[in-house]
Amino acid sequence: RQLLSIPDPQGSTCLHSPLSSGRLPMTRTHNLLVLTVATKESEGFRRFKRSAQFFNYKIQALGLGEDWDGDKETSAGGGLKVRLLKKALEKHADKENLVILFTDRWVPGGFLGGALSGKIEEYSRMRPSQDIRDKGLATLAVMEPCPCCSLSPSFLQERINITLDHRCRIFQNLVGALDEVVLKFEMGHVRARNLAYDTLPVLIHGNGPTKLQLNYLGNYIPRFWTFETGCTVCDEGLRSLKGIGDEALPVVLVSVFIEQPTPFLSLFFQRLLRLHYPRKQLRLFIHNHVSGRHLLGLLCEHGGEYKSVKLVGPEVRVANADARNMGADLCRQDRGCTYYFSVDADVALTEPKTLRLLIEQNKNVIAPLMTRHGRLWSNFWGAMSADGYYARSEDYVDIVQRRRVGVWNVPYISNIYLIKGSALRAELQQTDLFHHSKLDADMAFCANIRQQDVFMFLTNRHTFGHLLSLDSYQTTHLHNDLWEVFSNPEDWKEKYIHENYTRALAGKLVEMVRPCPDVYWFPIFTETACDELVEEMEHYGQWSLGDNKDNRIQGGYENVPTIDIHMNQISFEREWHKFLVEYIAPMTEKLYPGYYTRAQFDLAFVVRYKPDEQPSLMPHHDASTFTVNIALNRVGVDYEGGGCRFLRYNCSIRAPRKGWTLMHPGRLTHYHEGLPTTKGTRYIAVSFVDP
């Protein structure tokens, strides 16, 4: 119905031109006129025209802009559809050998479909008011018998052979045949193949519940995407933003939704600020259903940089769907709002050009691909089950893993998407987009969009970012993100691992402490990691007394006691071990060639030094193969004095940099002491690795 696909009939002698991908049997392009009935220039109609124009077929749409509601004599669309066809046929009655292909289009509220093909002189012998009825158009092919099509007449009506194309040689109706129609890729071509009859239909007709399958086929046919060419239409109709000054760029309403406790909110807002788009062209709407701690700093520091800011906090108690309706309506009511950009807080938007890239695709509704780290979970569905829930399409995994790259028509998107303001004021003008039956807000949104015959697109042409995992997010700590190293490792790394760690791993920022042999230091933690770990320990507050009796360790006796808190006291030992494995072990293997660590530890703890509490530490060996000692605050700012002295080599580190780790052998050779802290408070994180 919505897609004209003309596959190659595999070397048939009836082909008009070997350069085309196929023609109707016995038809030359200039002898074919495609007639269709349509009520409006929908996205489906434009796709229909584009697929026909791909083969240079002439299209004539009947009924565009006409009132269909007032003419319902017999069936959907009443007799108007038939009269439109009859009137069009009369105009062409004198054109000898003209072949008419008639395919139905969308009609409000009833039967969808129909396709007829035949010579104009045969059409003219028919009495449309009696012989052509809306409900009978779906599967009839009217044409003279020909050896190419091998269609036998099933009955004779006024000396015209009316033949049912039951083998789908020309017309493929998807209703009742979803399992029989597949894509056939071959040598840079893609076709729809009927498995039941092993035929390659010319016109694909999808109505009712089969529209979604038609949309899926339309991502590929005719030659819109193949393995050899990739996407051939992704650059069509783009809206270029190059050379446009900041003040002339479209105004975008950015809606942020924080609907549940979400990790890395501070990173989320940092990424939002990094968008390559002038903030004076952005309006900001935030619905925050949880704590507003991260928002206060953002709004105080950057709120004035935006065109406008509206915050709806948890005290207002607006439900999720209602908040989303509120955001969409803000853009709908503002004629100056060109785009509506909805972003959930569990989106990690790592590509700063995302907003520009989406605008340039020039779609009514489009979402960037987002997936969860190491999983096939994403923000779109490639197909839907009969009851309206998730089903996996044949191409889902390839799209998620970017083995197929393009712009895809899909039935469901969530988490992040861009909508044209003009669409919100026209096709999507209903003010309740996010309620539909008993569906959740995202499913309701997509159901309402599909109901309005608006296409939803997903682009995976770039790596835009990823989705956070919220499944095991703990909210019982002061800084809950510290515990996310397993669930959200990429975000954990961005927030807590020093930006120069990768350079250090490549050997560019590792410094040997001379003249101390086998003593190195290198960047490992961000300032945020240092601050949050210290604050977490002080929040816990149960520091040891610094004496030899210590029930936390095996045997209950500590030879060289410190005032400290162990990682297992705050239930952080699993996460700390993961940190050692991922970030310390690779450095160890580079700095000490031939040694391979399992990063096992008996003791990992944060030590606190104060002049009036415990200023220093007596000379000792560590119970480890090697020791990691991370400076958690800054000398000269937070404290004075401190450092580490290796007695055997008479060398000291007196100004350890915040976030840098000192790594040295623990036993036998590296006898060392902690130098006195003379002012303030010094914090270090220590691990005795491979005891």
Automatic annotation (TrEMBL):
Q: Where is this region: Disordered?
A: 1-21
Query: Do you know which SMART domains this protein is assigned to?
Result: P4Hc
**Which PROSITE patterns does this chain map to?**
FE2OG_OXY (PS51471), LYS_HYDROXYLASE (PS01325)
**Reactions performed catalytically:** L-lysyl-[collagen] + 2-oxoglutarate + O2 = (5R)-5-hydroxy-L-lysyl-[collagen] + succinate + CO2
Q: Which UniProt keywords apply?
A: Dioxygenase, Endoplasmic reticulum, Glycoprotein, Iron, Membrane, Metal-binding, Oxidoreductase, Signal, Vitamin C
Q: Name one GO cellular component term.
A: rough endoplasmic reticulum membrane
Q: Which GO terms describe its molecular function?
A: iron ion binding; L-ascorbic acid binding; procollagen-lysine 5-dioxygenase activity
Domain Fe2OG dioxygenase spans what residues?
600-691
What InterPro entries has UniProt attached to this entry? Answer: Collagen_mod_GT25 (IPR050757), GT_PLOD (IPR057589), IPNS-like_FE2OG_OXY (IPR044861), Nucleotide-diphossugar_trans (IPR029044), Oxoglu/Fe-dep_dioxygenase_dom (IPR005123), Pro_4_hyd_alph (IPR006620), Procol_lys_dOase (IPR001006)
**Localization, UniProt:** Rough endoplasmic reticulum membrane
Q: Which cofactor does it need?
A: Fe(2+); L-ascorbate
The top EC class is: oxidoreductase
- Bias (Polar residues): 10-20
Q: What is its main location?
A: endoplasmic reticulum
Q: Which SUPFAM superfamilies match?
A: Nucleotide-diphospho-sugar transferases
Among Pfam families, the record links this protein to: 2OG-FeII_Oxy, GT_PLOD, OGFOD2-like
Tell me how this protein sits in the membrane: Peripheral membrane protein
EC no. given is: 1.14.11.4
State what this protein does. Answer: Part of a complex composed of PLOD1, P3H3 and P3H4 that catalyzes hydroxylation of lysine residues in collagen alpha chains and is required for normal assembly and cross-linkling of collagen fibrils. Forms hydroxylysine residues in -Xaa-Lys-Gly- sequences in collagens. These hydroxylysines serve as sites of attachment for carbohydrate units and are essential for the stability of the intermolecular collagen cross-links.
* Record-linked PANTHER family: PROCOLLAGEN-LYSINE,2-OXOGLUTARATE 5-DIOXYGENASE 1, PROCOLLAGEN-LYSINE,2-OXOGLUTARATE 5-DIOXYGENASE/GLYCOSYLTRANSFERASE 25 FAMILY MEMBER
According to the record's subunit comment, the protein's assembly and interactions are: Homodimer. Identified in a complex with P3H3 and P3H4.
- UniProt name for this protein: Procollagen-lysine,2-oxoglutarate 5-dioxygenase 1
Q: State the species of origin.
A: Equus asinus asinus
